Amino acid sequence: MPLDLGAKGSCHIGGNVSTNAGGIRLLRYGSLHGSVLGVEAVLADGTVIDCLSSLRKDNTGYDLKQLFIGSEGTLGMVTKVSILCPRRPKSVNVAFLGCSSFDDVLATFKDAKGMLEEVLSAYEFLDHECMKINVKYLNMTNPLSDYPFYVLVETSGSNAAHDEEKLNTFLETVMETGHVVDGTVATDISKIKNIWSLRESIAEALMHDGTVYKYDVTLPQDQFYEIVEDMRDRVGDAATRVVGYGHVGDGNLHLNITSPTHSPTLLASIEPFVYEWVAKHSGSISAEHGLGFKKKNYIQYSKSNSAIKLMQDMKKLMDPKGILNPYKTVPSR
Amino acid sequence: MPLDLGAKGSCHIGGNVSTNAGGIRLLRYGSLHGSVLGVEAVLADGTVIDCLSSLRKDNTGYDLKQLFIGSEGTLGMVTKVSILCPRRPKSVNVAFLGCSSFDDVLATFKDAKGMLEEVLSAYEFLDHECMKINVKYLNMTNPLSDYPFYVLVETSGSNAAHDEEKLNTFLETVMETGHVVDGTVATDISKIKNIWSLRESIAEALMHDGTVYKYDVTLPQDQFYEIVEDMRDRVGDAATRVVGYGHVGDGNLHLNITSPTHSPTLLASIEPFVYEWVAKHSGSISAEHGLGFKKKNYIQYSKSNSAIKLMQDMKKLMDPKGILNPYKTVPSR
């Protein structure tokens, strides 16, 4: 499956397609707009649209299946899907690294792209606060000492010896330049799972703080972590914690803020500040989670008025009575 | 650039995006629906739709840029594009192989996928007739002896030693099993160019026969070459030549038939036979060339009535006066 994500235990493929889920391997296998080959969908009037092809190339008319990928069920209900699956990799390696600064995280990513290239399948990061709550609430073990940032690098390939050689050359380089201070490598499945769980358990661990304000943004790499620091300065003691983690490889940051109970004052301090910050840096206010009900009225921070109008026209054309996943994704006129 | 195609000397990026061009490396880098990150387009009423993001993840409302990819300019004029480009490979190898049967071409492809995997960047084939006209009309040299089929395998990767080792293991295997009878490998740029030109010159060489009837279809691998043989049987001496070549890796066959001058009798023998044949095998009557003016009324061979109706509705919504690339792609009601 070209898609993998933290929610893999509970999500459905139809939902993945409807929300254009991104996840941890988009870096390698691309977005569902490229890997979904066919869709069958049911329109608002009950018409079944059969675009359930499994062909890799088909340029006969408009590519209608794209309408249903990421439109959150508001243009049609996805009932069948055909997806291009890469071969299962014969060799998987995971390295977990400690970095002293976010600049080091970025420099290490640059080296990973250059030296691991076609076998690089994930490049994730978590900050010190994320590791702290993993240890505190979930009794997890930090395999390294304490560092401001942690990076998870995964390779997937067809030749174990080649992949390991590429990974070792990469690790020697980043240790020599000092961008990485410490690290551990896993090749057996149980150790790989343990390392991945440090990254994937963060959402669960955060809930132990009480209320979680979740933001899922795309930002240019240079500003990727700056928003976390600015948010920390802004909310100060009003929040229990401000953390950043996510998919460095795709520019997709999960910015989460916690407090013991829901606080309207804290929320007012976060929003619309967070959206304005992202818009100022030409980012996306929803990288992969979609707009749904909560964020549909903030769409103008990432999309132009003419684009929003065209979306409204399409919604009206395909669902004139507004019965498909109503009140979501696209703001009413 | 993630896209490469025979027309690279004359085509434009805006046209590539508008036609969803596929080309020779789709196998590796996927379709433009995945690699185009942003589009600016002008609608029929002059509105500029700015979806010119360069973000890899952005789920804020409908992914409007998809409307302009492959709709052949009938929904809007593409004026700016942002494309995700892979790193330039540090190492490129090309092997040119001779096979005794099309089954051998397919068996060799299976081995290529399994053994070259992440470094495989193209898998193309040409039949004996294609090679014959390359030699006859363009004075090209066949680097091998005469075989019924020729295969071009390309690897692109970041480590020359690893890539060559993978390629050699693959070549040893396919020679041992007998799927490949003969072959040559190129690593220097001029020899690589010569081999690629054997594949890319076919369209030009065919024109020397006189009139060329071009079909660009996607078919399941098992039936991939059968249509060429069936067409040869069908048209007999009415045609100068029936040839097959193209992108085995994507299931995309270029089926071309030539005659000294335009012959309505020959054309009537080819069409709609070719479309019926493709539809019967659940293929696409236009893999990558689009429908344009000539093929728009054959769309029903690859798309259902409900899908065609939705396309017509979208065209009417976005271009009510029908002024954008008129009379093309979608049949009138």
What does this structure look like?
Two copies of one chain form a homodimer. Chain A is 35% helix and 22% strand. Chain A has 333 residues and is of the alpha+beta class. In chain A, a hairpin with a 5-residue loop joins β1 and β2. The mean pLDDT of chain A is 96. In chain A, strands 7-4-6-5-9-10-8 form a seven-stranded antiparallel sheet, with helices on both faces.
Class derived from helix and strand content of chain A: alpha+beta
N-to-C span of chain A: 39 Å
Q: Multimeric state of these chains? A: homodimer
Helical proportion of chain A? 25-40%
Which sequence of strands runs across the widest sheet of chain A?
7-4-6-5-9-10-8
Major sheet of chain A: 7 strands, antiparallel
Overall mean confidence score, pLDDT of chain A: 96
| Continuous helix count of chain A | 13
Shape of chain A: globular
CATH level-3 fold name of the largest domain in chain A: Alpha-Beta Plaits
Tally of extended strands of chain A? 10
The helix/strand order of chain A is: HHHEEHEEHEHEHEHHEHEEHHH
Report low-confidence residues of chain A grouped into runs of 5 or more: none
Describe the SSE topology:
The structure is a homodimer of 333-residue chains.
Chain A: H1 13-18, H2 26-29, H3 32-35, E1 36-42, E2 48-51, H4 65-68, E3 77-83, E4 91-99, H5 102-116, E5 120-127, H6 128-138, E6 149-157, H7 160-176, E7 182-186, H8 189-200, H9 202-207, E8 211-218, H10 226-235, E9 241-247, E10 252-259, H11 264-270, H12 273-280, H13 305-318
Antiparallel strand pairs in A: 1-2, 1-3, 4-6, 4-7, 5-6, 5-9, 8-10, 9-10
